[in-house]
Structures are given as structure tokens and as C-alpha cells.
Write a structure and sequence with these properties.
Elements (H helix, E strand, L loop, with lengths): L62 H11 L1
Length: about 70
């Protein structure tokens, strides 16, 4: 079994022509085609930038000791 991924073009009449060289022996094969239109704009920009919500916690104390203390409360 071979998995091939490539980008091709559909012509003006709506036909997609495939000419694929393989390393397979002559004979019947099953073919699965998935058509996924490619956006001309490329990747979409995220709808919102969450970078203003990102922060860093400065911890003072022993983090492992605090974790064990919290576990002991359960």
C-alpha cells in the first residue's frame, strides 16, 4: 500500500487528471481520492490573539512541599 499526497489543479472543464507513477506491480488497485480545496489566502489567521492573557507566576517557596501538602488534604 502506498499513500500519496500532492497538490494538483482542476482544469476549466472541471476535470482532474492524475498521472501517478508507482512502484506497484501491474494489476488492479483500489483508489481512494479525497478532494480538499486549497485556500488561495493560505493559512487562516487566528480569530483572536490570546497573548495578552498569558503570564508567568513567580513562586516563592518549595513547590514540591506545597504539592504534597495539597495532596494530603484529599
Amino acid at each position: 500500500m502506498e499513500v500519496l499526497k500532492f497538490t494538483s489543479t482542476i482544469d476549466e472543464s472541471g476535470y482532474l487528471n492524475l498521472n501517478i507513477p508507482t512502484q506497484l506491480a501491474a494489476g488492479e488497485v483500489d483508489i481512494v481520492v479525497v478532494l480538499n480545496p486549497v485556500s488561495s489566502q493560505g493559512k487562516q489567521k487566528p480569530s483572536y490573539d490570546f497573548s495578552d492573557l498569558v503570564g508567568r507566576l513567580t513562586w516563592q517557596g518549595d513547590a514540591l512541599l506545597m504539592q504534597r501538602t495539597l495532596r494530603d488534604e484529599w
